[in-house]
Design goal:
The chain is an alpha/beta fold and 117 residues long. Helices cover 51% and strands 16% of the residues.
Length: 117
């Protein structure tokens, strides 16, 4: 099993890089849509996905059971996808979730300040 996680800064072409690498290596490309589909199959509603996906929660929302459920299902979706082997993950916290798992290689792509501006 080989898993590559790619995290990126804005304008670092992370999505394009991950997609091309997956194509060249013949790996599965796992992005937000893939993980959301898996989470929806477990009963997570689209409303929860929009409410908690990559958003800093308010103080009260950070104490919410809904948020904990969202994170639980996200972790489960990442682990399920990784269990199938040979995949490239883009974002969604996969590097953190899969940290320490044998066969996982994590990359962080950056862009120069000029490009980011």
């Amino acid at each position: 099993m080989a898993i590559i996680t790619i995290s990126r800064e804005l304008a670092a072409l992370g999505d394009e890089t991950a997609h091309e690498l997956a194509k060249q290596l013949d790996y599965r490309f796992v992005d937000r849509r893939t993980l959301e589909a898996r989470m929806k199959s477990c009963g997570v509603t689209g409303n929860k996905l929009q409410k908690y996906d990559e958003k800093k929660p308010s103080f009260w929302a950070s104490l919410s059971q809904d948020r904990d459920d969202y994170l639980h299902y996200l972790k489960g979706a990442v682990l399920d996808e990784a269990g199938q082997g040979n995949a490239i993950f883009i974002g969604r916290g996969a590097a953190v979730i899969l940290k320490g798992v044998p066969g996982v290689f994590s990359v962080f792509l950056v862009a120069s300040p000029e490009i980011r501006l």
